[in-house]
Design goal:
16 strands; about 5% helix; about 280 residues
Length: about 280
């Protein structure tokens, strides 16, 4: 089991500004008047960015400008989307391009079909850029989306372009994975309960037992320091799988010193609430 995570995001108000730049022709094909482009990187997947006035099957795109970034990103995550993924009239496809121009007619990288017909479409999508054949840093990146059978405007809770982290040694002790249901409940004076399920969240508990390597202990400490206890991050419990989760770490760093230099660590993670579609 290879655990991966991304605590940062190269997409910010600087790399994807709200106001269109006339030099590059803007940073999105369209945006809803309420669910605007800035919500694509607001660290809250429950307040999404939404395209506007897209006819059924229309292609849409978003673009970001990494400017002087020199560290090649290794992953891309698309969280809490409303893509359907099946099609009849035309193929469903997500394509990724990179260029220093930008020149989207003939980009230096791509356009590469990162997802298409027949691929598994999970609620959250993550892509290994190394597996897609790029270890370069381009100034401009663009994601194109065509989802022909989607009856709604495309919607994305968060887009994360980042350098992923991992641990030197991968642990194969497994982890606890659960669904937690958020319910509204009332109870009469006679004890009858009335419940309504409002939402559900993913929950993970990871335990690293018998850690004796000082470097790995340092990695775990650095990981907690990077989290800062403030914002959610992308968690990939198994790099061999397609799914990922946008989670918060609920606990502080508690290193249990069993004896001598043998340590145990626990990570308690809860999915960041998805929310509901308001309009």
């Amino acid at each position: 089991m290879t655990i991966r995570y991304a605590t940062g995001n190269l997409i910010t108000s600087v790399t994807m500004p709200v106001d269109a730049d006339p030099v590059v022709g803007g940073y999105c094909s369209s945006e809803d008047s309420l669910y605007q482009l800035e919500y694509l990187y607001n660290k809250s997947q429950s307040l999404p960015y939404r395209c506007a006035n897209a006819a059924l099957g229309d292609a849409q795109w978003v673009m970001w400008d990494l400017q002087n970034e020199t560290t090649p990103a290794t992953m891309l995550a698309l969280l809490n989307h409303n893509l359907v993924g099946t099609s009849v009239a035309a193929p469903f496809v997500l394509t990724l391009s990179g260029d220093n121009g930008p020149n989207w007619g003939d980009p230096a990288y791509g356009p590469i079909d990162v997802l298409g017909e027949g691929d598994t479409l999970t609620r959250n999508i993550w892509l290994s850029l190394n597996a897609l054949g790029t270890t370069e840093t381009f100034q401009y990146w663009r994601l194109d989306i065509t989802d022909p059978d989607n009856p709604y405007n495309y919607e994305f809770g968060e887009l994360v372009h980042a350098v992923h982290g991992s641990f030197t040694r991968n642990y194969d002790w497994g982890y606890t994975e659960a669904l937690r249901y958020i319910k509204a409940e009332s109870r009469t004076l006679y004890g009858q309960r009335h419940r309504k399920k409002l939402a559900k969240q993913k929950y993970f508990m990871l335990t690293f037992n018998n850690v004796v390597d000082a470097d790995i202990i340092g990695e775990v400490e650095d990981f907690f320091e990077a989290l800062g206890g403030e914002y959610p991050f992308v968690f990939i419990p198994d790099a061999a799988l397609d799914d990922c989760w946008y989670v918060l770490c609920l606990n502080d760093l508690d290193a249990k010193r069993n004896f001598l230099d043998i340590n145990s660590f626990t990570l308690e993670l809860e999915e960041e609430a998805r929310g509901i579609t308001l309009l």
